[in-house]
Each structure stands twice: as structure tokens, then as C-alpha cells.
Amino acid sequence: MNVVAFNGSPNKQGNTWHAIAMVTAELEKENIATEIIHVGNKSIRGCLACGQCLKNRNEQCVQPGDEVNDWIQKMKHADGILFGSPVHYAAMAGTMKSFMDRAFYVAGVNNGMLRHKVGAAVVAVRRSGGLPTFDQLNNFINYSEMLIPTSNYWNVIHGARPGEVTQDEEGMQIMRVLGKNMAWLMKLVDNGKGIVAEPEKENKIYMNFIR
């Protein structure tokens, strides 16, 4: 089994990376291969709402010049996915948002290809805004019918300068517990394949309330 993790911080090995690494360390103890991809230092344009991915349904965004389509394929072939972001104005980092908007839309219109994969989010914050950012990341996971492992608190760790999160003892425990629970859930899913039938996928119903 394998997990791909996305670091949404502009800093390659800042506090977001440390948070992700705490989780992946626990996964690797359970013989789950991990890869951390640095998203936050890339130039990623947001979704243009062009509708071409819906029209083409070829698992690709039509925008050229970045790595989003490669990352979509990594998500497709992973058993678990981990998303990490720092907090910018009580929200996730802009580059991470642009990547996730595009990647999850492509995944959704291609038969919901992230459905029932194990997915989790972690946040690194100096002081405040961690929970709104955590909620933002989880919105993508929830909408995609992914399976979410939990920890013993919200997945937020605190620190300002790179590496300071290693002084947040409670935060480190949160990441460790998340990694252990993520590994356990992935094993449950893997061992249940072919034994426990998945619920049938329902076609999405779209409504608005303007007549």
C-alpha cells in the first residue's frame, strides 16, 4: 500500500512538512510506502471553470504548464492521500487551494476516482486560523466520499519558525495518532476488498432553489 502526501507550504521543510513527516513516519512503521510532494512552491493557476475536464473525461485538466495532471494520477494510484497546508489569513495556502480545486474537480467528473480512498488533512499554524483551514481541506475529502481517519484532537499543530512544531508535544501526539489510525483504516479497507461489498455509487443529484 502507498500514501501520497501534498505539502501546500511555500517552505519545503517548514512546519507543514514536519507535520506531514510525523504522520508518514507512523505509516512507514506499518510498511506503507509514502511520498511527499511539494506543491506550495509551484506556480499553479486556479480553475478556469472552462468545463473541458467534464467534456473530455480523460482524467486531465486542460491547463498546460504545471504538474497538476501528474499529481492527479498519483492520487488515483495511491491507497491513501494526505493534504497539508499552512495557515494564510485563516485559510489554506493559495497554491494548495488552486491545486485542490482543479484536481478534485477532475477526479469528480471521472467517475469519482477518489471515492473510498483513505484521506486526511493536517494544518500547521503559528497561532490562530487552524480550524478554518482544517475545515477547508476536509471539505474536499468529504465531498469525494473518501474515508477519513481521525486522531485524538483536530489535526492542527503549532509553531512559527521552521521546526518549532517539534516543541508542540500535544500536536506531535495528534500527528502520531493520526498516522496510526490512518494505517489501521487503510489495512481494514484493503483486507475488506472482495469480502465486504462496497455500497453502490449513486449519481450526484444537483439542485438549486431558484425556480
Structure report:
By secondary structure, this protein is α/β, with parallel strands linked by helices. The chain has one domain (2-192): Flavodoxin domain (Rossmann fold, 3-Layer(aba) Sandwich), CATH 3.40.50. It is 40% helix and 14% strand. It has a five-stranded parallel beta sheet, with helices on both faces. The longest helix has 24 residues, at 169-192. The model has no long low-confidence stretch (mean pLDDT 97).
Query: Segments where pLDDT lies below 50 for 5+ residues?
Result: none
Share of helical residues:
25-40%
Number of domains: 1
For the largest beta sheet, what order do the strands appear in spatially?
2-1-3-4-5
Mean pLDDT over the full residue set: 97
Oligomeric assembly: single chain
Number of strands: 5
The shape is globular
Strand content: 5-15%
Q: Structural class, judged by helices and strands?
A: alpha/beta
Give the radius of gyration.
17 Å
CATH class assignment: Alpha Beta
- Largest sheet, strands/sense/barrel: 5 strands, parallel
| Number of helices, counting only DSSP H or I runs of 4 residues or more | 6
Determine the CATH topology: Rossmann fold
Q: From N to C, what is the helix and strand string?
A: EHEHHEHEHEH
Q: What is the CATH architecture annotation?
A: 3-Layer(aba) Sandwich
Q: At the fourth CATH level, what is the homologous superfamily?
A: Flavodoxin domain
Measured distance between first and last alpha carbons: 48 Å
